[in-house]
Design brief:
Elements (H helix, E strand, L loop, with lengths): L2 H8 L21 E12 L2 E12 L3 E5 L6 H9 L6 E5 L5 E3 L11 H6 L7 H11 L15 H13 L5 E5 L7 H18 L2 E5 L3 H7 L2 E6 L2 E6 L6 H11 L6
Parallel strand pairs: 3-7, 3-8, 5-6, 6-7
Antiparallel strand pairs: 1-2, 1-4, 8-9
Helix pairs in contact: 4-5, 5-6
């Protein structure tokens, strides 16, 4: 089962929880890709997400920074429909797309089958081929995941995520396992793809420089809440980098 197909199977689980309605995709008149109000998630007595509010607009690229255990991945999983919050409201697309740190390609399916999986009737081989061409893998439709480098595999994962034009794209540290040069190339590719397809994007990352490179808005999460928000265009990169490191409790010299 593909990532997007898995999400669609879980998306309606939130509907059944009192006080946490999940709504249809925002109308064309609305610029919002996702809206979160008063979200809370507890594990036993530990509060992981605490009355969190968040809005991401279509076409906006938002980076989420924070120390390990602050609730970043829990928030992403809630937006994806993979985790069930305890309270609050999520207004999000029915089936957002997710790219994880691991590409999660099916080894027994070729590349076009991986891209179209779960959407064969609407995407088909032709649509999958176009998506692969967009990420620089034209002519590789019948190749196999075992023949790909790490960067190429993540390109296929991006093609799979964007092939059905999602309103919301969730990125869970998708470039963390790549070498520095490949990561820089992937940053350029994902910015180009987001500009072309215009989904709202939330990327979870521990990398301040990655956030500065990619995002229109950078959020710092602390103790289950959004503790700070910055627009890179309003700051010099050096000043904002220093500020973000301070927000994350890192000494910068």
């Amino acid at each position: 089962m593909s990532v997007t197909a898995t999400l669609s199977g879980h998306a309606n689980a939130i509907d059944a929880i009192e006080g946490i309605p999940r709504h249809e995709t925002e109308t064309a008149a609305s610029p919002l890709a996702v809206s979160v109000r008063g979200l809370q998630r507890r594990y036993g007595t530990r509060v992981v997400i605490d009355a969190l509010d968040l809005e991401i607009r279509k076409g906006e690229f938002v980076a989420l920074l924070g120390e390990s255990g602050c609730g970043k991945t829990t928030l992403l999983r809630a937006l994806a429909g993979l985790d069930t919050p305890d309270a609050g409201q999520i207004r999000a697309p029915e089936r957002p797309s997710v790219v994880f740190q691991e590409h999660r390609l099916l080894p027994w399916a070729n590349l076009w089958e991986n891209v179209a999986l779960g959407h064969e009737s609407s995407v088909g081989r032709a649509g999958a081929s176009r998506a692969l061409a967009e990420v620089g893998l034209a002519g590789r439709e019948h190749d196999w995941p075992r023949n790909l480098s790490g960067g190429q595999a993540q390109r296929v994962a991006l093609a799979r995520a964007l092939v059905r034009e999602p309103a919301l794209l969730l990125l869970d540290e998708p470039f963390a396992a790549l070498d520095a040069l490949t990561r820089i190339k992937m940053h350029g590719l994902v910015k180009e793809l987001v500009a072309r397809h215009a989904p709202g994007v939330l990327i979870v990352t521990h990398d301040v420089d990655e956030a500065l490179s990619l995002a229109d808005r950078i959020l710092v999460m602390r103790a289950g809440r959004i503790a700070a928000s910055f627009h890179p265009k309003d700051h010099t990169p050096q000043t904002l980098r220093f500020t973000l490191l301070e927000e994350l409790g890192v000494q910068s010299h």
